[in-house]
Each structure stands twice: as structure tokens, then as C-alpha cells.
Structure prediction request, 253 residues.
Amino acid sequence: MPAAPPFRGRVGLLTGCLENSLLAGMCIATAKVLAHNGFEVVIPAEQVCCGALPAHLGELELARNQARRNIDVFQAAGVRTVISDAAGCSGHLKEYGRLLSDDPNYAFRAARFSENSRDSTEFLAEQLPLRGPMRRLELRVTYDDPCHLIHGQGISLQPRELLTSIPGVHLIELPEASWCCGSAGTYNLTHAEESNALLMRKLAHVKAIRPDVLATANSGCYIQLAAGVREAGIQVEVLHVNELLARAYGLIQ
Prediction:
């Protein structure tokens, strides 16, 4: 996707598994916001799963092979900074250096790849103030911290800074925002009862503060929370932080 002038740089975007198959709108929003802010967005078709889920399940050789493939693909595409809008993926990209530290052919390249990987909210916050103009979104917004972002990468302030940069957005803090929503990679599949208990606790807080939008920054959390509010009948829209930015820019509906 070409950058809106003036040009500020060239970045790669990892589309991931869930985004590519179920949440394409999230990736489109991320790419459009990056492009609007002057970054050419390269999305190599040959990229594969980041490897987080195989790593979670102990399939480390598969995870290493996927890491090698992505390093090769993004390097061939000529991009240095690789961005993901899913906290689980961006967190795992930063683990490539450790994952391949014993591989004589990839150790150095993997370490460099991890050093140059960014979560999309982290990268966009580094660009603040973002380019205008933005239209006003008169919305009460709350934000739920994905575990892979706040605990895994130490990123919590940046998504909130992006949300409050949108004119008209009133950010309401969600009680226990740093608590897991129950998604946790494959946890909601392998430990469904415990996962649901965490989700119900989270939704009780959402219901109590009555936001218009529940924002997050991870695909697994997005799916978990969206299903939860729908089944509970809570009138709140679940969106990625970047989708709100894209709406403010008028890039998506």
C-alpha cells in the first residue's frame, strides 16, 4: 500500500493467521492508518504464521521453521521494520532472536529481526502526534490490555495515547484492564471453563461502565470479547485501536 506524501518510511505488515482469515478488516485499518501517516506498507504474500501458537503448544521446531520463513520473506521484501497489529504475534516476533539463538545460519538475522519488530500501537505511538485531520468521534471508549501486550511487551500507555489523540473520544478506564480476558492463545479451547469464568468477570466490568466501544489490540482478545458481548447482550462495539483511528480519518466506516 503506497504512502500518503510526504513519505516517511517503508514497513512490513505481518497479517497473521486470524487476521488474514477472520479479521481482514483489522489489517486493512492498520495498513490504511500507517499509509495515511506516510509509511509504505509491504505485505508479502509468502509470509506464514508467526509461530506463536505452535510455540505455545510445544511444537518448537515448527515454530522455528515459521520464524525462518518469515525472516527470509521480509528480508527479501526489503523491509527493516516489521509490524503486527496482534499483540500475540508482535510479542512472538520479538522472540525470534531467542528462538533461533542456537541456529548458526539465523541467530544474527533473527536477533536483528526481533530488534526491529514492533506492535502496531507501539509503532504508531512513536509517531505521535499523528497526521491530521481527524474527525470527531463522540464516543465513550474503554480499553482492555491484551496480556501479550502489557505483560509480554510492557506496552500499556501507548494504545491509550492513541485513543485519546482522537478528537471527541472520552477514555474510561476499565477495572482490572490488565487481567486476562480468557483468550490466551489456545487457552479458551483447552481450558474452556476457566476461560469463560475470566471472560464473565471482564464483561461484568464492561457492563458496569457502559462504554460505546470496547477497544483492544489483539486478535484473540478481539474474537473472545466480541463473542462475549454478543452472547451477553451487552450493547458495546468491540474494535481494534487502529480501527478507531481509521474511522477518525474517514478511511473505513
